[in-house]
Automatic annotation (TrEMBL):
Keywords: Acyltransferase, Transferase. This is Ribosomal-protein-alanine N-acetyltransferase. It holds the Pfam family Acetyltransf_3. GO terms for cellular component: cytoplasm.
Amino acid sequence: MVILLQLFLRAPDGVLIKGSQKGNGMFKMPFRRQARKQQGKIRLPNLKAQHIYLRFPMLDDYQEWATLRMESRAFLEPWEPLWPADAHTLIRYKMHLDRYIEGRKNGQFFVFFVFSNETDHLIGGISLGNIRRGVVQSGEIGYWCGEKYSGHGFMHESLDLMIDFAFQQLKLHRLQAASIPTNTRSIALLEKCGFVREGLMRSYVKIHGCWQDHYLYSLLETERPIKPV
């Protein structure tokens, strides 16, 4: 169940994480001056739902991340760009973390891992990227889920949390997501969370080695009931 995982390519510096245990981190997120002027000081909300919570990726998550991705390879590959040979090496993972840190620092890119409240096991990931300010105020959603956790409602809770974060904390006006027409699980998830299909983007992204059409979905802040965070 994946929508353009490669939208994850960017994200903080100045992120302070205390504590190595999952869910016990304290986050300090400075943003560039322009972002502060536009959206004020952003506080990380309590990104926790009934069954899952969201947390920034950490170095200690590497082995669990690599294992879950490799176990789910046949499940994920049809919906993602081709995996390079070193896709799940420690070096590559550290490169991802550096990009995530830079993106959060700039206020343009946020990547979270999804964990189980009950077991603290990694379930998947979700991102908000390509954040545009000014007269646009939009961002793009991407996510992935380990095969053994698919179909249990975990990504629905994750997407619900990310939507509230985008609209209530980042003060965005519009969210977008894209899905291959045959990815029925992703389409059902988006529509369940209120996204509206706007049209078909032809040959939009090279997925699994082939250029693929994608449905474009969007959700506006005015279409989302206000919730406490």
